[in-house]
Amino acid sequence: MVASPSVCQVAFSTIDLQTTYAWYRELFGFLPSGRTGIVRGPLFSRMLGLPKVATTIRFLVDKQEFFHFEMFRFERPEARPMRTDWRPCDVGYSRLGLHVDDLDATLERLKNAGVSTLTNPIGRVASRRVCVRDPEGVMVELMEEDPRLPSAPQRPRPEVAVAARSVTLSVPDLDRSRRFFVDALGMHETTGVVLHGPEHEALWGLPGARSRSLLLWAGDFLVELVQYTDPVGKLRPEGYRVCDQGLTHIALGFRDLADFGAVYRRAIAAGYRSTWRPLHMLAVSALYLNDDQGFTVEMMMVRRWFDGFLGFRPKRY
Question: What mean pLDDT do residues 88-96 have?
Fold first, then answer.
């Protein structure tokens, strides 16, 4: 039986890597967990599906095991800025959800740093929500509650005050997205969990919006697929590339090579394509899959003893 996939990474393409990296560290308490010099070469270019890649990468971890943020700064190809008229209903990876241990303390730090929330917090005490935009324009939702599976594992860093809990995708066709994320990748529809209601649309600037949605578990992480019917979101700009500014993709993490291979073969059999063949190294296997609506999902198998080398454990600098 194939193990259920778990989100192990949220990836960003940044224009100002240093500022964005510091923003998440200083305002939320993410911990540094690794960095690279310039990464380049034909193998990496083929994996990403981009020509002549040259990029710098930094990693951050929260309180969770086998999860990190991956932040790119592309020197080549150069990242194109997010559209100035971008809205969360526009097609793409649209929003990141963070649970913070102390929302009031977090809001005070944001205020002192000159960061304004889009609205006042909404909801009852202990379940309030509010949104901000990070230095790259990424929409970040802060939540007091911490939605988790009953069987969720203990977290190795409970002293860290933040945990990434969800990512939201604005998709043009929800049924096609279901086929990719559920049927091909093996994510599971939630039962008894409601992440958002109509009242939350105002938090990210879409009061009264209408949509269809599907909420999925990928391990102990929530993936929300939303198809907006009013307003209908704009498609990605012509020529969009995974290096362009903003949230770019998520990664599914595996500990067993057989599970990694089984999900890959199922996705290929369903008609989806990877940018290149799976890359197998000593303790890591990786590839990038693309669905039929332009969304990228990375897959990686990592042996536990190699976590520190790939930015899944804190490092001091």
Answer: 98
pLDDT band at 317 (very low <50, low <70, confident <90, very high): low
- Return the closest-CA partner of residue 50 out of 71, 17, 81, 75: 75
What is the model's pTM? 0.97
- Three-class DSSP category at 79: coil
Task: State residue 2's pLDDT score.
Answer: 67
- Taking CB atoms within 8 Å and a gap of at least 24, the contacts of 305-313 are 306/282, 307/66, 308/34, 309/34, 309/283, 310/34, 310/59, 310/284, 311/33, 311/34, 311/59, 311/61, 311/68, 311/70, 312/8, 312/33, 312/59, 312/61, 312/65, 312/66, 312/67, 312/68, 313/33, 313/61
Range list of β-strands (E), the chain: 6-13, 31-35, 39-40, 54-61, 68-76, 92-100, 129-133, 139-143, 162-170, 188-189, 210-217, 222-230, 246-254, 273-274, 279-280, 284-290, 296-302
The answer on pLDDT for 1 being more than 80 is no
Query: How many angstroms separate the CA atoms of 221 and 289, rounded?
Result: 19
Residue 124, burial from CB neighbour count under 10 angstroms (0-12, 13-18, 19+): exposed
Cα-based angle 218, 288, 311 (whole degrees, multiple of 5): 70
Q: Which residue has the tokens 């990664």?
A: 251
Round the average pLDDT of the chain to a whole number and report it: 96
pLDDT at 134 > cutoff 90: yes
β-strands 284-290, 222-230 pairing? unpaired
In this predicted structure, the answer to whether residue 76 has a pLDDT above a threshold of 90 is: yes
C-alpha distances in Å from residue 264, one per residue of 6, 220, 297: 14, 21, 11
What's the residue count for the chain? 317
Domains of the chain: 6-310 (3.10.180.10)
Tell me the pairing of strands 54-61 and 31-35.
antiparallel
